[in-house]
């Protein structure tokens, strides 16, 4: 249970700023290792982007659309068996666009079959493609783009490019022009066994994580926004919240890397060379969502768990980001999502650009939100005729919403482009005791990426604390 900020002590071994999945995991691992940990979160609830909200008896999940099988091992090893035990597969993934309509379990076997029989790609080519992406790792040459990778194996086949790329663009914001490694690692993770979800919903997961933190002795304060990371004599000394300084041997920031460098830490603490690289970091895109709640007692047909739909003629990264995009993913949450909670909800997700939404006047903003909501319902009607009459709650989120709740620069949903990873990994060399965890480099984002990165950073911090 979170404690009021007024009850915090003056000193901890280390402080974690932010309770996204990366921050929660680092805090948990470090407390498990015996360190006294303070976790400070600006929002009233833990989880960061792994969150939910309740309206009119509905529970809407924000970022529980799907993650790779790797979460099973990660949760078992770094959280607990109960968390692992709630991970279940989503078997019904649907694509519908002007180039093809198909249903898949989104794993290597099924994709091999689809690429060979539906798209008429020779089996050897499919096999070579899978071998190439599965062999990609962080230390590879990063000059090849995903576009070049696709052209190498499937030249001119924009339909195949769409099948392979569209879900990954929704999953981590990467485009055809990002390094192929950002595609290969995430795609291979999914192809391992398919798409998985957390039965019971995000609220159950975060409660279980919160219980584990408490068991390991983490002091948690919500509604506690860190205003400043305090650095003295070139080393981290602590953080400042509402004028109170709390000291610690190390600080782990789960605030975005750009926030951490530009807003939380004095720029004079960093070398010019580091700052010039940090200033060049590009943040990833943000998101828009439309939340639809089905009236209690009404039912809807099973139309798939995830529907990647588009009326755009071909896949185009810019089209997916457009404020009037014709592409969206529907996540359909049936009663099985939350056993015992007999409700249906549907979330339409789109990628979005922060600037497109912040340049609008208040009136224009309301208008665009209403138009986006109307487009989402019209598109959903194509799969569930008459659904409009069954909806009793409608709400929309835009990049402005994501920025407000997480404080992320430009409301980024997936952290930064590739260059952010190196900055995040080396920040402690600039300011000893200062570490960053959280979505960076495309690779370290998503539920699995954020948790795994939380473990990596916790190991760094543990080593640092033991060395001083
Ligand atoms: C719409 C959407 C859909 C997504 N869908 C999926 C999906 O289906 N599958 C998947 O795997 N991933 C998905 N993701 C991505 C995934 O949710 C994120 O990559 C992951 O949750 C990010 O974790 P994080 O550790 O980077 O922290 P974040 O979740 O970004 O949290 C950072 C936390 O730090 C806090 N904070 C920031 N500054 C301060 C401060 N100064 N003081 C105190 N607290 C502070 C914030 O309030 C926040 O709680 C989705 C994301 C979005 C936006």
UniProtKB/TrEMBL annotation:
Classification via InterPro entries: Amino_oxidase, FAD/NAD-bd_sf
Q: Where is the Amine oxidase domain?
A: 21-365
Write out the GO MF terms.
oxidoreductase activity
Question: Which Pfam family, an example, fits this chain?
Answer: Amino_oxidase
Family in the record: Belongs to the carotenoid/retinoid oxidoreductase family.
Which PANTHER family does this chain map to? Answer: B-CAROTENE KETOLASE, PHYTOENE DESATURASE
* Protein name per UniProt: Phytoene dehydrogenase-related protein
Kindly list the organism's lineage. Bacteria, Pseudomonadati, Thermodesulfobacteriota, Desulfobulbia, Desulfobulbales
């Amino acid at each position: 249970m979170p404690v009021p900020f007024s009850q915090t002590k003056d000193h901890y071994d280390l402080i974690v700023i932010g309770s996204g999945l990366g921050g929660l995991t680092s805090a948990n691992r470090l407390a498990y290792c015996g360190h006294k940990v303070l976790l400070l979160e600006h929002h009233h609830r833990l989880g960061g982007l792994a969150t939910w909200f309740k309206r009119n008896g509905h529970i809407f999940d924000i970022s529980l659309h799907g993650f790779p099988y790797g979460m099973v091992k990660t949760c078992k090893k770094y959280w607990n068996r109960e968390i692992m035990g709630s991970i279940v597969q989503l078997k019904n993934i649907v694509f519908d666009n002007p180039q093809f309509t198909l249903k898949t379990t989104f794993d290597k076997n099924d994709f091999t079959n689809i690429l060979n029989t539906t798209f008429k790609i020779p089996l050897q080519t499919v096999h070579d493609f899978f071998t190439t992406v599965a062999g990609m790792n962080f230390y590879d040459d990063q000059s090849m783009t995903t576009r070049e990778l696709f052209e190498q194996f499937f030249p001119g086949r924009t339909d195949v490019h769409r099948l392979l790329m569209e879900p990954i663009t929704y999953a981590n914001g990467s485009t055809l022009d990002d390094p192929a490694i950002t595609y290969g690692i995430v795609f291979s993770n999914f192809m391992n066994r398919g798409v998985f979800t957390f039965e019971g919903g995000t609220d159950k997961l975060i409660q279980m994580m919160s219980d584990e933190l408490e068991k390991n002795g983490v002091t948690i304060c919500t509604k506690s926004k860190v205003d400043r990371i305090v650095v003295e004599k070139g080393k981290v000394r602590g953080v400042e919240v509402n004028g109170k300084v709390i000291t610690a041997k190390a600080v782990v920031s789960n605030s975005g890397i750009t926030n951490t460098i530009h807003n939380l830490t004095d720029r004079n603490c960093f070398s010019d060379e580091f700052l010039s690289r940090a200033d060049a970091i590009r943040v990833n895109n943000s998101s828009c969502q439309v939340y639809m709640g089905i009236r209690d007692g009404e039912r809807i047909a099973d139309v798939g768990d995830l529907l990647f739909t588009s009326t755009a003629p071909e896949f185009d990264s810019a089209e997916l980001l457009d404020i009037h995009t014709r592409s969206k993913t529907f996540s359909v949450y049936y009663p099985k999502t939350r056993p015992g909670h007999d409700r249906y909800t549907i979330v339409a997700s789109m990628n979005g650009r922060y600037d497109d939404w912040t340049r609008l006047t208040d009136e224009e903003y309301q208008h665009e939100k209403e138009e986006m909501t109307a487009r989402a319902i019209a598109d959903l009607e194509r799969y569930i005729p008459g659904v409009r009459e069954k909806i009793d709650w409608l709400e929309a989120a835009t990049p402005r919403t994501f920025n407000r709740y997480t404080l992320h620069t430009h409301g980024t949903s997936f952290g930064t482009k590739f260059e952010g990873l190196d900055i995040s990994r080396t920040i402690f060399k600039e300011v000893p005791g200062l570490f960053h965890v959280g979505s960076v480099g495309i690779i370290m984002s998503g539920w699995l990426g954020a948790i795994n990165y939380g473990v990596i950073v916790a190991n760094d911090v543990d080593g640092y604390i033991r060395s001083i």
